[in-house]
Amino acid sequence: MVDINQQDERLNAALELFYYAYRVFTAQPDALLAERGWARVHHRVLYFVGREPGLSVNTLIARLGVSKQALHGPLRDLQEAGLVLATPSAQDKRVRCLSLSAAGAALEEEISSGQRALLAGIFSECGVPAAQGWQAVMGALAQLDHSVNRRPAEQDIQPIL
Fold this sequence. Notes:
This is MarR family transcriptional regulator. With 161 residues, the chain is mostly helical. It has six helices and three strands.
């Protein structure tokens, strides 16, 4: 029989680890964004647009799981800074397709490279089975987000190491 109190304590410990890990994972990007008076949503916009140039505004809204209103300010900030470009779609001129300028790509790289290095170091230190376990847990959590219409699909998940 499962001891509920013991299970709750393990889950509480997992929650705490998740919280502290996320704090470490976001500390450097948050500091870089704060220098510009920006927040994490600015980073998310740069990241997703950088990963998929030509992404429509509506698809970005779905990926981020935010409202059009919540995206408007950060997207405007990034466009005014010359980091994100919006061009009409070739198929439908009403649709705006987003891409990063050279400066936007450089900023996204600066912000995300520390996170990639952090993950690479931890995965290397913990080994392939741990990295695969982490990827399985994060993939399963991400699959619960039904607002995401493309990523991360199971076929998109590649082995980390």
